[in-house]
Amino acid sequence: RSQSRSVSRGSRRSDSRSASPGPDRRGSRRSPARKDSRSPVHSGDTRDSRSYSRGRDSRSRSWDGSRSPRRVGARRADTPDYIKLTDADAAFILGKGGKTKEKIARVAGAMLDLPQRSMTLEITGPPAARKRAIMYVECVMAQRVGDVILDEEDPIFKSGCTIVDVPSECAGFVTGRQGAFLRMVEEEYCTIMFFVKLKGESRRPRDTEQMAIFGERRGRRGAELKIMAAIESKLEGHLTNHIKETKSDDPEWGTDIVRLQRREISWALGKQGATRKKLARASGCLVEYIGNFVHMSGDKKQRETAGEYLDWIMDQLHDICEIDTDNRDDVTVL
Length: 334
Known about the structure:
By secondary structure, the protein is α+β, with helices and mostly antiparallel strands. It contains 14 helices and ten strands. Residues 77-142, 158-232, 252-315 form the K Homology domain.
């Protein structure tokens, strides 16, 4: 038994010793295969691929914070325009919370990007939209230091600008406290507005300031009527002394003007303008009261619908309103 035990023990020891590498026991814990699997880390291949992916991500994020390849591709489809800015100009273009930059982009139909710690404004979008954005940016920068001067021969001015003559004595009233009234009108009608001077000053009446309204036709007309209403409320009779009832024959775009009695205005306007707003929403027509004159702007169907609804509103003031609902596509009877 003693011999057999010693033999078995000896054989086991010799087998275990022969299986181990001998002098390098610590190295036996790490297999050669595992060491090879880690070797690419030191070769630099994986690091190169990582650095490439990071660089690619950083390039896409530097534009708009998005990794979407579709948006990056859309941006590269159009050649961008660049405007160099000063620190003061950059702050003025951004506005409080970036609102001025967003407004310019929204009205122009372009995309504006001003990265942090960069003094270069990038403008992308269709060529016409970029031109509009450049003009609006230049107007904002000019407004910061002095007068905004416009050329009446500029194609953008001819196709997308409306001028309103504002009496100098109520220019502050139209602007509002810290520009609050103008900002409200711009937001409501998707426009951007500046007090400007036209080259030559040939059409400027005395003691007036000129308000330029940029945007789409419908928005410009809505903002124009809102400014005119503010002027009339400040200087009663300034506009209404020269306004007459009219009805447009243009089927695509026009303005119908209806005169109301002074005592009827508060009823047609409603509390805080609620009735006027309701009339405009239901008809799809721009409706604004300038003094005791109701202005309705839109296509022919919109104007006719707004006029009909206005008649019903006024009938309710004097008597019960009777409406024939047969063959109408704008009514539900309950």
